[in-house]
Amino acid sequence: MPYLSLTAEEKKAMFDRIGVRSFDELTGDIPASLRDPKISLPAGLSELEIQDLVAKLGQKNTTVKGALSFLGAGSYDHFIPAAVFDIVGRQEFSTAYTPYQPEASQGTLQAIYEYQSLMVELTGLDVSNASHYDGATSLAEAALVALKQTDRSKLLIARSVHPHYRQTIRTYLAGTPYQIEEINFDAVGNFKREELLSRLDATVAGVIFQTPNFLGVMENLEGVSEKIHANGSLMILTANPLSLGLFKSPGEWGADIAAGEGQPLGLSMNFGGPYLGYFVTSQALMRRIPGRLAGLTEDADGKRAFCLTLQAREQHIRRERAGSNICSNQALCALAACVYMTLLGKKGIREIAEINWDRANYLRSKISSLKNYEVDPSQTIFNEFRVRSNKPFPKIQEKLMAQGIFPGVALEPFYPELKDHFLVCATETKSKEDLDRFVEALERC
Amino acid sequence: MLISQDDRLSFEKSKSGRRAVTLPSARFSGESPTKAVSSGLLRQTSIGFPELSESDIVRHFINLSRKNFSVDTHFYPLGSCTMKYNPKVNEWAARNEKFTALHPLQEESTAQGMMEILWELEGGLKEISGMDRFTLQPAAGAHGELTGMMLVRAYHASRGETKRTKVLVPDSSHGTNPASAALFGFHVVEIKSDSRGRVDLEDLKQHLDDHVACLMLTNPNTLGLFEKNILEITKLVHQHGGLLYYDGANLNPLLGIARPGDMGFDIIHINLHKTFSTPHGGGGPGAGPVGVKKHLIPFLPGPLVEKAGGSYRWADAGPQSIGRVKLFHGNIGVMVRAYVYLKMLGKEGLRKVSEAAILNANYMKECLKDTFTVATQGPCMHEFVLSIKSLGAQGVHAGDVGKRLLDFGFHAPTVHFPLVVPEALMIEPTETESRETLDLFIEAMKAIADEAVSDPEKVKTAPHTLPVRRPNDVLAARKPILSYRDQLREKMLLAEAAA
After folding, report:
1. pLDDT per residue as tens digits for the range B124-161
2. How many domains does chain A have?
3. Which chain B residues are Cβ-neighbours of A77 within 8 angstroms?
4. Is A346 in contact with B51 (Cβ distance < 8 A)?
């Protein structure tokens, strides 16, 4: 048996020591009718057979490396430095538990603390947690924080926030007395400012925006936080963290909470997970933050030490009075993001954002000259933008996929009015040849 | 010195002008964002990331890693956490670019291998648990519980039974249970444990009425006992119209031995990062797939993987679905590992896992029962709880014993939990440990028991061999310093005060 150690003699000696003759005597509490269920599973495989099976299953997938992919929409193909994999693969990190014993976990704790510090720098806010599950759940918890902090009942969400995030928030709030209203976007994809202003009333707990939004547009939030705060509501922003190397941070926009998806910070796409929910707030909301926090302190000998802190907020202490039920988080993903941001450094984070901007803008400008496609070059974008095709998008997709190109994400399933619109993403992974090849292939469709 | 004493942050090692990764210098658009983009959208503040070389950074993090205990370096008998060995072939598979480089929204036809893995994994979980369908979305055990509570609410609402607002939780339960139930408005009622550590049937009966939405149960419970009366418990709750939720944190001793579905549970989550050997990652990522019986399938979050004519597709959720609980499809990388583990063990292997987990726990309990008080009577399942109260050691707490164990090269057990046992040490050896390791741990426990009486100070001030000793968590909470920015601010304030 793989992974087991006890030999037959050892088992016998252990049974003797316990004073029982058989295994069944140890499980006498299990009612007879439940014992030995019929389970239909195949026999175990050897490691060699498993490796063979896994390789074969892999062959049935076409990856974004095997194709030429312009898919984004919340999961992005980025360059990941080799050192990230090596460090995250260190078993002292990957096979450790939650750092509840700080003396035996200073490595994990300091890494979390550094992750928190990097996220504070990046978002321009004050306090970061140790991670949440993903962008959708992190944003849902941000919504809960706003509702609790203001003791109000309504959330306003820009309709240009990622559809999965909005759906998750709806799921979280279903069956509660809280309400959600959406703020629509205009023809070019900006949220409708006048709609926001007309809906801000005394019941609004928080307003949620995404930038760049799901349609790729950098939202102009000038003066927005002032209006929201004057109304006694909180402003919650979900931003692509990589875009913050170049674009205004949540802190600069006046947000109270930055909550979103950290996958662009050195995590593989992995068919959708595991990713990284980031959650950063203003100082005023520190005690409402869900999940773990690592703090700096001193040990009994006056030495610098790290420990989990403000645990009185959490479920293992507060039980049914806890603000959130989160326990396990995405610690190893936060470590990957921490290493990635450290490797980029102060200059690299700006450069990588500029390169993304450059690739997407080059591609957009090329597509704008094509006859059968429309883009809006007036909108500021980061690494994604919306294209409207004059021909049915499913047809175009089929043709391009036959040439090994994943053209982007269809928008109609998320926004019925955006028929034949699709979202195209170009990150630093795309060479000029890649982009030109895509443009030519689009033209030929 | 084997372990670096350098406790500086990366920020404190930074030197202006140093670089690690280099990025392409070519630009294609012929434009610069600072000119092309309205300045109102551009970042005006600097980003205080550290500046280091790659070798600085690698050494920094590798030295940090050496300040950790982990399953690959130490025995880690944390009760209810199932810190079993994490097989390397799982990691090998999960690293395969054919899985890691898949986009969650790419066409189904291009990800058939991945979807087959998800389908097969779900099939295995169904067999092992006796449930009818699983959603793979939940990211962790607590997220599974939350999903479960939403299912409970939606199910009762669909039957017009909105008055069912009470969730029953044993007093020995994990903290996430009451927190998950309370988060969305359920009224949590604690059920007492009886003198032997099981659900007190009489107390349960008193709380059963037509307001009960659900009973959440961990079985075996956190004392390591199988709920002997489980069939009666599930029958009683069902008779009163309530549902039963199975917290899968302690599923490890039941593989191939007994199934929650057969016990009468309606909803279950399984912690893949416990029973299915995926690494804990220093706190995550885990995965908490949620399984249900037939009557609850329409309420599951979608989409779900479906198989038709030899190919796989995503099937959207129906009108009764609670809706999506997460971005995309779940923590897929964790599922690849769990799938490989399942395939590797097969039917017989699964049962052997549970048998060895139970044997190891009972052996340790037997060897320690004369030194410590065992909180329960009779055999245990995969874990057991000791109390150190009977040691008669002056001022020594269970937490101190845990800290002293670190000096002996063992991670501490779960301490001061479950709450129903005073001075508790909750020990779960798992099946992957050798008898020699168990014996060494037993010896260490006995030595510490002696020490606690002969030299209590030594235990109370432990550990003595690790980079730090007893971080002051009161100070950390009173004056929270949660980032390098906080440190700089603190320094400035001190300087101002001095001036």
Report:
1. 999 999 999 999 999 999 999 999 999 999 999 999 99
2. 2
3. 101, 103
4. yes
User: How far is B129 from B124, CA to CA, in rounded Å?
Assistant: 9
d(CA A144, CA A92) in angstroms, rounded, equals 35
Answer for the pair A249, A118: CB distance below 8 angstroms, yes or no. Answer: no
Task: Search chain B and give the residue with CA nearest A129.
Answer: B482
Rounded Cα–Cα distance for residues A306 and A106 (Å): 6
Could you give the ipTM of this predicted complex?
0.97
Going by the DSSP 8-state scheme, the letter that residue A132 receives in this structure is B
**B291 exposure class (CB count in 10 Å sphere: 0-12, 13-18, 19+):** buried
- The β-bridge partners of B189 are B168
- Find tokens 């040990």 and name the residue: A299
pLDDT digits (tens, 9 = 90+) for B33-81: 999 999 999 999 999 999 999 999 999 999 999 999 999 999 999 999 9
C-alpha dist (Å) from residue A208 to A142, A146, A189, A237, B322: 9, 10, 16, 6, 22
B78 interaction partners in chain A (CB closer than 8 Å): 97
Q: Given an 8 Å threshold on Cβ–Cβ distance, is B182 in contact with A171? A: no
State the Cα–Cα distance between residues A353 and B438, nearest whole angstrom. 52
B419 at interface of A, judged by CB pairs closer than 8 A: no
Residues of B in contact with A84 (CB under 8 A): none
Contact of B491 with chain A, judged by CB distance below 8 Å, is answered with no
| Token couple for B213 | 């939405």
Domain CATH number, residue A331: 3.40.640.10
Question: Domain check: are A206 and A100 in the same one?
Answer: yes
Contacts of B129 in chain A (CB under 8 A): none
Contact B72 A295 (CB under 8 A): no
Q: Is residue A327 part of a domain?
A: yes
Residue A1 included in any domain: no
Write the CATH number for A358: 3.90.1150.10
**Beta pairing partners, A405:** A68
What DSSP designation does B198 have? Answer: S
Task: Please write the tens of the pLDDT for every residue from A3-33.
Answer: 999 999 999 999 999 999 989 999 999 999 9
Helical ranges in B274-331 per DSSP H? none
How far from B463 is each of A92, B70, B335, CA to CA, in Å?
19, 17, 37
Which overall architecture, per CATH, does domain B89-345 show? Answer: 3-Layer(aba) Sandwich (3.40)
